[in-house]
Amino acid sequence: MALLELQDLTIVFGGLVAVNEVNLEVKKGQIFSIIGPNGSGKTTIFNMISGLYKPTRGRVHFDGKRIDGKRPDAINRNKIARTFQNIRLFKDLTVLENVLIGNHSNISTSFLDDLLHTGRKRREEARIFQKSKDLLEMFDLVDYMDNQASSLPYGAQRKLEIVRALASDPTLVLLDEPAAGMNPNETHNLTDLIYRIRNELGVTVLLVEHDMNVVMGISDKVAVLNYGAKIAEGLPKEIQEDQSVIEAYLGEEEQ
Amino acid sequence: MKTRSKLIYPVLLIAAVAVPFFVESDYVMHTLIMSAIYALLTMGLNIITGFAGQLSLGHAAFFGVGAYASALLTLKMGMNFFLAMSCAAGMAWVMGVMLGFPALKLRGPYLVICTIGFVQIMHEVFLNWISLTRGPMGIVGIDYPPTLTLGSWTIDFSIPLNYYFLVLVFAVITFVIILSLLNSKLGRALKAIREDEIAAECAGINLTYYKLIAFSLGAVFAGIAGSLYAHYIGYISPDSFVLLESINILVMLVLGGMGTMIGPVIGAAGVTFLLEYLRFLAEFKLIFYGLVLMVVMVVAPGGFWGFITRLGFAPPGSKDR
């Protein structure tokens, strides 16, 4: 059974059909990529899955539950986490604080625990501190732990966003152009990390990415969007040879 | 680094306890008590504006609700001071939730305008609900809290020194509450909302819940401050709870350092004493005060405590420690 299923997902802004009857099935444990020219609706789909936009028509099913139209925080509690195309870190806070905030959904302390500094609060705080540190270690960010998030180099900020998303223990993580602005070295490292997110942490990955080296190298399956509609779906190899995909991309380059 | 900055808390507490014993004039004692009341108000606003990032000019309304509720409950219903204060805090809490709702929809300047509207409405209520509040004549004859007897030890609150310690106890409790909430799930959620609302809600933070928490907590502390003010001054009128008072509290917060623990305390005491000690300038007082505000904001945009932090007396990175 599919972990994430989009059925006839459609959203209309004014007169513009930004996403048009898109159907997708992401299976548990997959690395699934969505590609397409700029403005083809990739991020808009992410915004509908994560609850920032309410679809005009269609449904989103996740883990057997219907989640479209729910608030973003409820969707995070349903174990979907995301990153953003234009990095949205908590800039003035430290790297560690960013990750601690990522844990929000699975901290079990109540207002009274926090207020009275109970044993339960101290245990929870110790637990999420250790967990956050381990995650930062995995992403080579632990040395920056006490630095202000905005002081990190660009590539590290992108990685920190991924760590923050993973801190909520998601079953599905949505990565929105994680390789954007990275140098080839960082991109190589990122590819490796995406594998580890899936293999070691067991998190299913839905990826929007422009860097074809990343997409074709790691994806189990790729879907292609153009003008809000899905024009192709298949294995990376099939997509590379698909005539309509080539046209969509060449068409963009001519403009 | 962290431990060094935490040393400042006991130092500040010892200073706050010791200072009144070096004060001989009633006038300075009065200024000290007002500083402590303003510290309570500023710490409350710090939760709303400093930590949760919701710019509000509604604080004088919570202050007023606390003052009127406490005064009326003791005078008209003969309620005990501490019980009346609890009720006043409860009413301020309700007001906080009410003002929190617009904050769910509005941001920045739009929210500010909305909170200004709230202060105006509350001022009109104090002014025109004459059967309850006596309108512009205000409420007179509000008593000091009753004398506390602990064994052979009696504390008479009509003595300024004792009243100062009463306010100080509430200020310290407030400080400790905010400090313990700050480095917890709740405190981090508020800071996340201040930094980026969209990222915060995608990280599982319920914006509605936490914004209402911020406004209602801030309002409760303002309500307690209102109660302490009314029973200290003995007379309250609508004039004390106007927009200018909200601005005054915001100035204390920003000058001291928004989003820090120490900043609101220093800002409240600093501004209260400054305004008293500039009296000799007569009509030039507010001009000079205005100049001070402008210079501080240009030199130290992070407020006094933000400035100290940058000089390296407190850890870099997080300005909230």
What does this entry show, briefly?
Chain A has 255 residues and is of the alpha/beta class. Helix content of chain A is 40%, strand content 24%.
Can you describe what's shown?
The complex is a heterodimer of chains A (255) and B (321). Chain A is 40% helix and 24% strand. Chain A contains 10 helices and 10 strands. In chain A, helix 7 links the parallel strand 7 (172-176) and strand 8. Chain B is mainly α. Chain B has one domain (2-313): ABC transporter involved in vitamin B12 uptake, BtuC (Orthogonal Bundle). Chain B is built from 15 helices and 2 strands. Chain B has a two-stranded antiparallel sheet with strand order 1-2. Residues 314-321 of chain B have low confidence and may be disordered.
> Which structural category fits the helices and strands of chain B?
mainly alpha
Question: Number of domains in the coordinates of chain A?
Answer: 2
What is the rounded Rg of chain B? 19 Å
Strand content of chain A: 15-25%
Strands of the biggest beta sheet of chain A: in what spatial order? 6-7-8-3-9-10
Number of separate domains of chain B: 1
Most extensive protein-chain contact, per-chain counts: A-B, 40 and 31 residues
Largest sheet of chain A: 6 strands, mixed
CATH class descriptor name of chain B: Mainly Alpha
Q: What are the segments of chain A in which pLDDT stays under 50 over at least 5 consecutive residues?
A: none
Instruction: Predict the CATH topology of chain B.
Output: ABC transporter involved in vitamin B12 uptake, BtuC
- Report the portion of residues of chain B in β strands: under 5%
Please give the CATH class of the largest domain in chain A: Alpha Beta
Globally, the shape of chain B reads globular
CATH architecture of the largest domain in chain A: 3-Layer(aba) Sandwich
Q: Which regions of chain B contain 5 or more consecutive residues with pLDDT less than 50?
A: 314-321
Instruction: Give the proportion of residues in helices of chain B.
Output: over 70%
Question: What general outline of chain A do the C-alpha atoms trace?
Answer: globular
CATH architecture of chain B: Orthogonal Bundle
Average pLDDT rating of chain A: 91
Q: Count all strands of chain B and give the number.
A: 2
